[in-house]
Amino acid sequence: MLLVEDDRDDYLLTSELLEEIGEGTYVLQWADSYEDGVEALFSGAPDLCLLDYRLGEKTGLELLREVVARGCTTPIVLLTGQSERSLDVEAMKAGAVDYLVKGEFGPRQLERSIRYAIERNRSLKALRELNAELQHARNQATAASHAKSMFLASVSHEFRTPLNAILGYSELVHEQLVERDVHELAEDVRRIHAAGTHLLSLVSDILDLSKIEAGKLDLVTHAFDLGALVVEINEAIRPLVGRNENNYRCRCDGVGEMVSDATRLRQVLLNLLGNACKFTSRGTIELVVERRPGCARDFDPSAADAPLPSVECVEFTIRDTGIGMTAAQMERLFTGFSQVDADVTRRYGGTGLGLAISRRLCHMMGGEIFVDSEFGVGSTIRVRLPARLVAIVPA
User: Fold this and answer.
1) How far apart are CA 112 and CA 99, in angstroms?
2) Radius of gyration over every alpha carbon of the chain, rounded to an integer in angstroms
3) Which stretches of the chain are assigned E, i.e. beta strand?
4) Could you give the angle at the alpha carbon of 11 between the alpha carbons of 18 and 84, nearest 5°?
5) Of 1, 128, 164, 276, which one has the greatest count of Cβ atoms within 10 A?
6) Alpha-carbon distance 164 to 196, whole Å?
7) Prediction pTM value
8) Could you tell me which PANTHER family the record lists for this protein (predicted)?
């Protein structure tokens, strides 16, 4: 232990108190000046420092602030006189772990203060080491995630060029085979084209997700007729609706103009409607688009249900009578490269990227996705977006 004390009598008194404790061995080093105390704290690395408040022309508080500012981690107990008790709080704020009033403590109180200070310092040291390890692990995970995203973006981009060539040539060959009435080969080429189209869709999903994770996906915001966009989506989704003999309904009246990224909004709705078609057989799928005054909870589930002045919300509700989900399955719903369970993956296929991408795109457009589902009954998904993106996310 280090005692920084300019009075020899107080040094001898402290030595006697330590001898009376009777438990453990205390090796006391004495520094009788401000300068020697600072030097001893950094060169001797003591387990504890007892610091007197009066140090000639300077004070223990000044020493305390100086060594703490320089990174000293030794626990320091300030020794004050009766008249300086008002300094106790100030000392604790400056970095002291405890304080003792001269003349008012004996061996038991001194031992308790020493033990508390050392144990506290050990705990803080362990906490600092743990935080350093966690920060290192976090940095490694962040770097690995960034490297993964960059790799996926690079590989996905390289895949697109040959895939587009395969699709183009297979379409050309298919047309020529049909013209020559070679229908058996034409059907084989059609399957090649369909498989290539599916693969290109998967590559596009991976590229989108990697761009989002790398922070390189930019929105292109402009004004567009929302009703016209919904008509386009209805036409695009009808082949998927008919594949499983489903009925499709759409209600979209008086929704007006929207300021957002039409391409990304179309992508989100086609993803969600495509899933509804895939997981529903001989059932009903419905899309309802409504415009209404917005509130904070529309765009942030954790926010209060408070109105947002001058902000309108566009809500897209997609209902289906498909297989539905359990509560456990819904917990994994928006995880990338994941479907609700292995049986669903085997039966319906897919990478599970569509919902993960859709949710992140909604967040980028200032909105949120809400899901309600009952196993064996169906699902309802609500996408809520600001009618004007600039109202929530400044340009």
Assistant:
1) 12
2) 35
3) 2-4, 29-31, 49-52, 54-55, 58-59, 76-80, 98-101, 222-225, 247-252, 257-260, 284-295, 307-320, 368-374, 378-386
4) 100
5) 276
6) 8
7) 0.56
8) OSMOSENSING HISTIDINE PROTEIN KINASE SLN1 (PTHR43047:SF72), TWO-COMPONENT HISTIDINE PROTEIN KINASE (PTHR43047)
Find where tokens 């013209």 sit.
Answer: 179
Q: Output the CA–CA distances (angstroms, integers) from residue 88 to 49, 60, 338, in the order listed.
A: 16, 12, 57
Token pair in block for residue 198:
């599916």
Single-letter amino acid, residue 146: H
In this structure, the number of other CB atoms found within 10 A of the CB of residue 124 comes to 13
The residues with which 58 forms a beta bridge, in sequence order, are 55
pLDDT in tens, 293-340: 999 989 988 888 888 888 999 999 999 999 988 888 887 777 655 554
Q: Classify the phi-psi angles of 58: left when phi > 0, otherwise alpha if psi is within -120 to 50, otherwise beta.
A: beta
CA atoms within 13 A on the CB side of 375: 8
Q: Classify the phi-psi angles of 360: left when phi > 0, otherwise alpha if psi is within -120 to 50, otherwise beta.
A: alpha
d(CA 324, CA 93): 57
For the chain, how many helices (H) and strands (E)?
A: 12, 14
